[in-house]
């Protein structure tokens, strides 16, 4: 979730708290039933999209690491022994090329295709491989490893697609959230004109803070009071800022006669 999206969601949640804390006072002067319903719906959907984006991103990264492990295991424990036996005993067969391990740079769907081709070729010469030391279950183990890797690839793509969908949803909810805040501001602020304390509380709640911390609302506060900020007084130089060696001479040197 981008910084401004996070800031909008935080403002929406602060507004919820403000409306809850001052429900009795506000109910007597303005009807916020429809606006509050919309606010709650946007917050709920906003939060869901944020969770989905983060979970999908973590899931995709996890599957990427998992694929690397499965690929290394499949290559080392299944494919390389098959390729070694094939180089010693099956060079003259039509299937020899398919019985060689792909380059180390091959991954994803290309690796799956190579592994399936090797499994099919190994099936034709199964007896040769078992005679030279591979277990009788080597083909089943090989195909199971391919299935696990293929499943991980598909899971990563699903996580990637869910992340794209959640990201698009967050863009929409940011716009909707800003609109909800504007509508509520138009309803609430005029009714609080005579209540300075509640008005300040409302303005702080609905403010989209572009910086974190207590200084985020400082510019708005100084503007609303109409008082300009006094110019900052420069801090005195510390002894380490200027030394005698660094200070240029104040008078030009006298030329020698």
Architecture overview:
It is a single chain. This protein has 257 residues and is an all-alpha fold. It has helices spanning 3-21, 23-27, 33-89, 108-124, 126-131, 138-188, 196-206, 218-225. α3 runs parallel beside α4 (108-124). The protein is rod-shaped. The model is unreliable at 215-257 (pLDDT under 50).
Structural class from helices and strands? mainly alpha
Average pLDDT level: 86
Rg, nearest Å: 34 Å
User: Can you write the helix and strand succession as a string?
Assistant: HHHHHHHH
- Main sheet makeup: none
Instruction: Name the poorly predicted regions.
Output: 215-257
Helix content: 55-70%
Total helical segments: 8
Distance separating the two termini: 75 Å
Number of strands: 0
Strand content: under 5%
- How does the overall form come out from the CA principal axes? rod-shaped
Quick recap:
The protein is an all-alpha fold and 257 residues long. The chain has helices spanning 3-21, 23-27, 33-89, 108-124, 126-131, 138-188, 196-206, 218-225.
How are the SSEs ordered, and which strands pair?
Layout (H helix, E strand, L loop, with lengths): L2 H19 L1 H5 L5 H57 L18 H17 L1 H6 L6 H51 L7 H11 L11 H8 L32
Key descriptive features of the protein:
mainly alpha
